[in-house]
Amino acid sequence: MTKRMHVALAASLATSLVLGLGACSTGNDSGGETSDDGRGPGATGVIGGTPKKGGTLTVLSNQDFSHLDPARNWVMPNMDFGVRLLYRTLTTFKAAPGAEGSEIVPDLATDLGRPSEGGKVWTFTLKKGLKYEDGSPVKAQDIKYNVERSFSPDLTGGPDYAQQYLADTEGYQGPLKGKHLKSIEVPDDHTLVFHLKRPVAEFSYTVTLPTFSPVPESREKGVQYDLRPFSSGPYKIARYDRGKQMVLVRNKHWDPDTDSVRKAYPDKIVVKMGFKGGQIDDRIIASQGADASAVEWADMQPASVSKVLSNKETKKRLTAELTGCTDMLHLNTSRAPFDDPKVREAMQYAVDKDGQMTANGGPALNEVATAYLPPSLTGGNKSDVLRVEPGGDPAKAKKLLAEAGKPKGFKTTLTVSTGDKSRAEALQESLSRSGIEVKIQAVDPSVYYDTIGDTKNAPDMAISGWCPDYPSGSTFLPFIFDGRTIKEKGNQGNYAQFRDEEVMKRMDEIADMSDPTKANKAWIELDAQIMAKSPSVPLLWERKPLLAGSNIAGAFGHPMWTGQFDYAVIGLKNPDKSQG
Amino acid sequence: MITYLARRLAGVTGVLLAICAITFTIFYLLPADPAAAACGKTCSPERLAEVRHFMGLDQPVWRQFADYLVGIFAGRELGTEPHTLSCGFPCLGYSYENSLPVWELLTDRLPVSASLAFGAALMWLVLGLGAGITAALRKGTMTDRTLMIGAVATASLPVYFTAVMLLYGVVRVAGLLPYPEYVPLTADPAAWATNLILPWTALAVLYAAMYARQSRSSMIEAMAQPYIRTARAKGMPEPTVVVKHGLRSGLTPVLTIFGMDLGGLLAGAVITESIFGIPGVGRLFFDALQRSDQPVILGVTLLAAFFIVAANLIVDILYAFIDPRVRY
Question: pTM score, two decimals?
Answer without folding.
Answer: 0.88
